[in-house]
From TrEMBL:
Organism: Handroanthus impetiginosus
WD repeats: 50-91
Annotated segments matching region Disordered: 293-320, 472-504
Keywords, sorted A to Z: Repeat, WD repeat
Name of the protein described by the UniProt record: WD40 repeat protein
Organism superkingdom: Eukaryota
Pfam family, one: WD40
Segments of skewed composition (Basic and acidic residues): 308-320
Cited InterPro entries: DCAF8 (IPR045151), WD40/YVTN_repeat-like_dom_sf (IPR015943), WD40_repeat_dom_sf (IPR036322), WD40_rpt (IPR001680)
């Protein structure tokens, strides 16, 4: 019987250097394996803090080359950083009247075209000119707009989603916005008029596919090829749904972040729950009738009982055994947090947490490998560099922290990782407006409030009323940094930011 060869005591990067020198490892593979090395992840440390915003930093994004980091904040300004030196290349007012939630540089535009969205419901386009920066209103949502997604490799096309449930397609060549659909809840949750959307992501391997997620438990996948521009198609029907089996009937969770890997895997971050990785073969299918037919479980990966197998549709029965990979340890209940991949081939999963830390897991297997102190309050944004082992993070504090593998000693996991908090509905304060709750209550009242009303409607009404009564309309994060009101309007649809309003 052959014995297993003893594992070498040398670190993998050292072995890779030796193989490269002997010609057994190509330079490209060496660079990829080195960038994905756990040794580098364990040596991540703060290079510097970028501290010029006057509010929470809600958005971080690198340009394609990776030498510029663009940030957006509650102070409504956009800053382009030379993050390696810590210098500001450009700073300008976004034109928004409320907190900026996303700012991205359009590819192949020499970093002169930036699209933004914000809490005022506006989607804007900023063009960097020789004499200054010109910002224009492209479209609006009826509610906050948390995220936008750029079609991979396109300098013109991107998508937006908002708390009104609307998904829009925007082409900068014509400056027109096409309303694709309003995301509707599944039948068992029909007392809501729309799903308040918080996240949208495009599959980099197939840009025809994009996913959205929001105030319910389902990530929905759509195919733009099924849309007809004359509006005659029923495009609001997803081509696939994704949800962990034990959350299918849980109406108290929602999705705060989405990300696609370069292998078309979909990463979904839930409030008051975990992060899950879905491969395209474990979706629940395009039929939303699977709800209320999969038993809930007490933890991730719980399966349905054999007694319920005859109640499930065949697509659920086939896929329920293939539970998605879960990533645990962080807390996500106080804010709308993003989630991301890290590494040249998406070898790691990264997320912020309510405890002010950054969590890094191995994508394969879900093992927690690193926890880093990053904010005194909450970490919301983690952005991976497109080429190097570099991370940018931000949260409730007003600065941005740049992380590179420069620590002399390898870090170890802390022993005081805080446990998850009890389930809370504070997250819905970010996703549902008081006006929307009032509309839902009014709709339920019209369906019947007397003895003849159903128990389901009564329970739903009590839940909505309780949430409305506890709604925190004075949340610090949702208010303007200068205390001003967000009840502004842009009748012209255009703001020209002069050179005097920019700092270079």
């Amino acid at each position: 019987m052959m014995r297993k060869r003893a594992r070498t005591s040398l670190n993998s990067p050292v072995v890779d250097v030796w193989k490269r020198e002997l010609g057994e490892l190509s330079s490209r593979n060496f660079a990829h394996r080195l960038a994905a090395s756990e040794d580098l992840v364990l040596r991540l440390d703060i290079l510097r803090k970028l501290d010029k915003h006057r509010g929470c930093v809600n958005s971080l994004s690198f340009n394609a080359a990776g030498d510029i980091l663009v940030s957006g904040s509650d102070d409504r300004r956009i800053i382009l950083w030379d993050w390696e030196t810590g210098q500001i290349r450009l700073s300008f007012h976004s034109g928004h009247h409320n907190n900026v939630f996303q700012a991205k540089i359009m590819p192949y535009t020499e970093d002169r075209s930036i699209v933004t969205c914000a809490a005022d419901g506006q989607v804007r386009h900023a063009q960097i000119l020789e004499c200054g920066v010109e910002t224009k209103l492209l479209t609006r949502h009826h509610g906050r707009v948390h995220k936008l997604a750029i079609e991979p490799g396109s300098p013109h096309i991107f998508y937006t989603c908002g708390e009104d449930g609307l998904v829009q397609h925007i082409d900068l060549r014509t400056r027109t916005a096409t309303s694709l659909f309003t995301c509707k809840p599944v039948p068992s949750q029909s007392y809501f008029s729309a799903v308040n959307l918080n996240a949208i992501a495009i599959d980099p391997r197939n840009p025809n596919l994009f996913a959205v997620g929001g105030s319910d438990q389902f990530a929905r996948l759509y195919d733009i090829r099924t849309y007809r521009w004359d509006g005659s198609s029923e495009f609001d029907r997803p081509v696939d749904f994704f949800c962990p089996p034990h959350l299918v009937d849980d109406e108290h969770v929602g999705i705060t972040g989405l990300a696609f890997s370069d292998q078309s895997e979909l990463l979904v971050s839930y409030n008051d729950e975990f992060i899950y990785l879905f491969t395209k073969d474990i979706g629940l299918g395009p039929n939303s009738a699977f709800t209320s037919q999969v038993s809930t479980g007490s933890d991730a990966g719980d399966m349905t009982s054999d007694n319920d197998s005859d109640k499930r549709p065949s697509n659920v029965d086939d896929n329920v055994k293939d539970a998605p990979q879960a990533y645990k340890g962080h807390r996500n209940c106080e804010t709308v947090k993003g989630v991301n991949f890290f590494g040249p081939k998406c070898e790691y999963v990264v997320s912020g947490s309510d405890c002010g830390r950054i969590f890094i897991w191995n994508k394969k297997g879900g093992e927690l490998v690193r926890v880093m102190e990053a904010d005194k309050h909450i970490v919301n944004c983690i952005e991976s560099h497109p080429h190097a082992t570099v991370l940018a993070s931000s949260g409730i504090e007003h600065d941005i922290k740049m992380w590179i593998p420069k620590a002399i000693h390898r870090a170890t996991l802390p022993t005081n990782i805080q446990k998850r908090r009890p389930k809370s509905r504070f997250w819905m304060h970010r996703m549902v407006s008081p006006e929307d709750l009032m509309l839902q209550l009014f709709s339920l009242q019209r369906q019947g409030t007397g003895p003849e009303s159903s128990e389901e409607h009564s329970d739903a009404g009590r839940d909505l009323l309780q949430l409305l009564l506890t709604f925190d309309t004075n949340s610090e994060h949702n208010s303007n940094s200068d205390g001003s009101s967000d009840d502004h309007d842009d009748d012209e649809g255009r703001d020209a930011t002069s050179a005097d309003d920019c700092s270079v």
